[in-house]
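Annual report, structural modelling task.

Input specification for the zinc ion complex:
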Amino acid sequence: MGNRCEQCNKWVSLETQDLEITSVEVSGTAVTFDCRSVRNCQECSMEMKALDINEEVELELDKFDGFSNLGGKKQEQLREAWDAEQLEIEVTEDGGSTDESGGGRYKKNILTTTVEFTAKFSWEGLDFTYSSNFSCEHAASEYDDV
Ligand SMILES: [Zn+2]
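The model returned the following structure:
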């Protein structure tokens, strides 16, 4: 599968750019990440292919640091507040990247995008934190022409 650059007027290799994370939105206990992955002509750096990635991650209360240290009664109370979506969860992205070597040896042209993030909330004066990441794979052919 080749990519022809109009500017260079020949077939070229593509270079995957740093992942742009355009928005992080929290709705209840789910987070939606909007990202844009761009691939440029390796020779003249013209944008040639782009893919918008929308990924939803469901947060889980028991993965937050601090939850397991609570007593049983407190855990129950916090679980109720969590289920009722009464907690104000803040999520920040800690950067993302797209790796061209995904898919394994026999599955070429798969790009793996990984985004690191941290989720936080406070409850009754205590802070709870969860750091994690998600990964998703896309075929190079899913990228649209720019
Ligand atoms: Zn070019």
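The chain has a mean pLDDT of 93.
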